[in-house]
């Protein structure tokens, strides 16, 4: 059982996320530290597809703001006592031409740094410009080398490098996620379509045969023999739970007692972790063929399993402590 699990790990794979070194990534992180609205997907989904709307991708699936602040409210928020003629103008209008409505650069910068105003910039400035250039969906945004002219035009019209970096970063994330999801879907579909029944594979595993190796048999070579059956008894806990000396004496063999040496479970057609690939070739050695069909259980394997099982019981059954990390060497 342990060997089957160990070998099956060969087929495990980990997809590493792509990491960009471009400066826009750093600005995107800074931007989102002051933009909790974007980080809360109050509704909707962040499972992007290529057909996702650019507005949804920029808002991370959250709904657009229901109530838009007035310019006078924003001035109050930043502690400005400046009086402007158009204080009752909504910020979705102000955000289109902030220099016109907020002449003072210092005040304008503080207002545009408000989380709500950063959201307005995405919803009411970036999205209309993207749609005006035909970029209405994640698919139309494309990869880094796609739609370059349209993207350049949006960047120039925004005239705000930090806002552009945020738009670029968020839509790139959505596009890459959608492409990855599409690729995974194709792989699953391909594997499903290519799946085939291997006659006899199920029965081979269910009816796998036990055998074992015994020592202390006087009339056999090296005093050992193979028996085609389950042993009448296996190792006791006292035999298994023995910690070997870290540095045994040189040229000193441990005394070997008579009895069970190892267990072997054999499936004639192989195992799931070998993909039932037991087609022997003329160059295959007996050990290579055994690797396909045999699971070998040694005393050391059972000792490791006892340690892991005791820890799992303490974690999952008795609820005494979290699991202990182990490193298996050998």
UniProtKB/TrEMBL annotation:
Residues 84-125 form the DUF7578 domain. Coiled coil: none annotated. This is Uncharacterized protein. InterPro entries: DUF7578, RHS_N, Trypano_RHS. Residues 202-319 form the Retrotransposon hot spot protein N-terminal domain.
